[in-house]
Amino acid sequence: MGGKKGDKGPGLVTKLVRLVVVLVVLAVLVEFGGRLGASVAAERAIVGTGRAASADVTVGAQPWRPALVPTLAGRPLDQVSAELTDVKVEYLTIDSATYQLDDVQLSYRFSTRPVTIGSIGSGSVRLELSAGSLAAVLGTPVEVADGQVLVGRDRVPARLAVADGLLQVDAAGQEFTPLPVDDPDLLMCPPAVSVEGDRVVLSCTGNRLPALLARALDPPDTGGTPGGPTNLGPPNSVTVPSTTAPYPDGAQPPG
């Protein structure tokens, strides 16, 4: 009846195996649960600003490779990517914004801000503008096709350039109001402009954490009060030269 007198329960090896299994299960829960929780929280924070219609945030470069667990030992998070749609910035609507942040340095502590972002190793951003978005801000018909931008009812080819943080559109000598595009809230670097298919693309690589993502991934400490800054417009330091080309609805450019 009962166990033998010599039985002493599971051996040391069995206990170690059980401990390893428990640790692995905990690591998996932290890794994948943490990824899902961080992604959902960031998406809600971005959309909650009212400046983007939708957001899709992915934590980790690969689903099968640990990303969050190594950060507990002080290693940087390998990658965070995000895709936003219909981002509103002052007079301009960005149809889509795609980000990739590499080597994101995180810090953990017991406070109202348990996770903070220190810096990123590098990052890239791609902002896409459709013909409709450009037409709305330029106040004239716009067609983007085959890598070319045509403006006006006569479909005059336009030349696009970025200088001093402003997107300049010039068609047969007709200049439109320059648009501020080097916005640290959206970008980590001064962008270059190109035309790809039916989209105008602003893109760059740099190591500045865009404020929009910083607020979503590392919300400010408000003493327990939810919320924070939500204005995604160009900073006050960016001014737009006055021209005779008006914005739609008679609005005037900022500055």
What does this protein look like?
By secondary structure, the chain is of the alpha+beta class. It has 3 helices and 13 strands, in the order H-E-E-E-E-H-E-E-E-E-E-E-E-E-E-H. The protein has helices at residues 12-48, 131-138, 211-217, and strands spanning 54-59, 77-89, 92-108, 115-129, 142-145, 148-151, 156-157, 159-163, 166-171, 174-175, 179-180, 192-196, 199-206. The strands form 3 sheets. A 6-stranded antiparallel beta sheet has the order 1-2-3-4-13-12, covered by helices on one side. Helix 1 crosses helix 3. The longest helix has 37 residues, at 12-48.
Mean pLDDT: 77
Instruction: Give the strand tally.
Output: 13
Specify the number of helices: 3
Strand content: 25-35%
Alpha-beta content class: alpha+beta
Q: List the uncertain runs.
A: 221-255
Task: Going across the biggest sheet, name each strand in turn.
Answer: 1-2-3-4-13-12
